Amino acid sequence: MPNNNIGRTRWAIAEGYIPGSSTGEGSAFVSHETACILNATDREAHIEITLYFTDRDPVGPYKLSVAPQRTQHFRFNDLDDPEPVPRDTSYASVVESDVPIVVQHTRLDSRQSELALLSTVAYAEGE
Amino acid sequence: MPNNNIGRTRWAIAEGYIPGSSTGEGSAFVSHETACILNATDREAHIEITLYFTDRDPVGPYKLSVAPQRTQHFRFNDLDDPEPVPRDTSYASVVESDVPIVVQHTRLDSRQSELALLSTVAYAEGE
Amino acid sequence: MPNNNIGRTRWAIAEGYIPGSSTGEGSAFVSHETACILNATDREAHIEITLYFTDRDPVGPYKLSVAPQRTQHFRFNDLDDPEPVPRDTSYASVVESDVPIVVQHTRLDSRQSELALLSTVAYAEGE
Amino acid sequence: MPNNNIGRTRWAIAEGYIPGSSTGEGSAFVSHETACILNATDREAHIEITLYFTDRDPVGPYKLSVAPQRTQHFRFNDLDDPEPVPRDTSYASVVESDVPIVVQHTRLDSRQSELALLSTVAYAEGE
User: Fold this and answer.
1) For residue range A72-100, what is the model confidence (pLDDT) as tens digits?
2) Where are the beta strands (DSSP E) in chain B?
3) What SS3 string covers D11-71?
4) Least CB-CB distance to D123: which of C114, C115, C124?
């Protein structure tokens, strides 16, 4: 069931923020920020993420790959090469791929006892 | 009031996850994941959903239909042919239809006493 | 500051649902569903909303208007002509306008003591 | 890593509302409404925001700038020239830039002890 014509090659998430503290129990409830990536094609997706900040130069590329016909949910919390993503800092991200992918952005904020969960399809561009 | 020219024929939801536990009372508050589908055309929509996973081959198609000028809210929790959707597992979905439809993705997470609700229009493609 | 070229003339919201009960205090916290409409053009927008259901024919049009260079937040709870929107019932909506508009969909769910708030830009189509 | 071809030059957020009260502790939890803007290009973005209301003329432009390859999260709460954004009032906004940008809209509502957080990519238009 490969599907080579769904998705785009460039995506942007203008809103990024990993809270520095959490109150939930268990790793599922640690505040986190996720890029959910679907690669429905029959080729491996080679993906580069660049992070943009308010007052310093962009950092990247963070290199990831997603196998053909697979989905991968990447936590920005876990990115560490070339460097970890700073906490309590606003950032934006651009996701570029050599095959069409679909990107959705999700954040769980558990700084207070009440959870806040948001999700939105990222901004899409490219062939 | 048929409206034959609103919607697309291919949709993708990159973020899917059905929590394995719930705390709310009553079925409306059971953690669930829904694809809300609108078929505003004057023809029945024959729909196929394919699920993509992190570490195994895609599963599907799940076959659904939506009558002309009707909307249907499908819970992924209820899909069981060819197999149930696993809990506590990340997945993505592609929704394909033979007539234009509109797809919105909603999740209620009731794992903690506080509810988290998210919704986003799915990624659209196709004529 | 009229802006005649932002927006579209056909929008769809596939997910609609007005909970039948509320726990919040004050009308701002009554469970509600809103279509936020921006008309940035220099002409009045004549708008027709059609509601689609799971098991009966569509209802509408609900006729609304938005003055030039104004925004209006319509609560589906308040629509009553040709008939009120049923509670605890899934529905979808199509919004059509004679001038370009922008539509965003918001729901406040206050059935439990915790509030759930969602918002997403509607699906856009048309010139 | 400048990226001159991601984004659009006109964006609209149909839903705007800054609650007049808050319950959270610390400025991060004060109810607020944010436009997260990414300028991935190699040129400074000169941005004008116009606010639209229900029953009076539009206000603006609010003039902002975002340096090349930077992201900026603007709180509508902080805009004050030509005038502050009124609280407890529905508004919509149009964001125009001389270079392509990406805009995401986020609101934290802390009027009750439970937080509500929403985010959605804004409506995009323009080359």
Assistant:
1) 988 888 999 999 998 888 899 999 999 99
2) 8-16, 32-39, 45-53, 59-66, 70-75, 91-109, 116-121, 123-125
3) EEEEEECCCCCCCCCCHHHCCEEEEEEEECCCCCEEEEEEEEECCCCCEEEEEEEECCCEE
4) C124
Contact of B120 with D120, CB cutoff 8 Å: yes
Give the model confidence (pLDDT) of A53-77 as tens digits: 999 999 999 999 999 999 998 888 8
Whether this model's ipTM surpasses 0.90 comes out as no
Chain C positions with Cβ closer than 8 Å to B: 10, 12-16, 50, 52-55, 57-58, 60-61, 90-92, 94, 107, 109, 111-112, 114, 116-123, 125
* Cα separation, C18 vs C81, whole angstroms: 17
In the block, residue with structure tokens 């069981």: B80
Q: What SS3 string covers A45-100?
A: EEEEEEEEECCCCCEEEEEEEECCCEEEEEEHHHCCCCCCCCCCCCEEEEEEEEEE
CA–CA gap between residue C97 and residue D12 (Å, rounded): 17
**Is the Cβ pair A120, D104 closer than 8 Å?**
yes
User: CB burial class (10 A; 0-12, 13-18, 19+) of residue D96?
Assistant: buried
Distance from CA of A121 to the nearest CA of D (A): 7
State pLDDT tens for residues D32-80: 778 889 999 999 999 999 999 999 999 999 999 999 999 998 888 899 9
For residues D31 and A20, give the distance between their C-alpha atoms in angstroms, rounded to a whole number.
Answer: 19
pTM, whole model, 2 decimals? 0.86
Q: Which of C9, C47, C104, C118 to mutate to test the interface with D (most CBs of D within 10 A)?
A: C104
Residue C78: helix, strand or coil by DSSP? Answer: helix
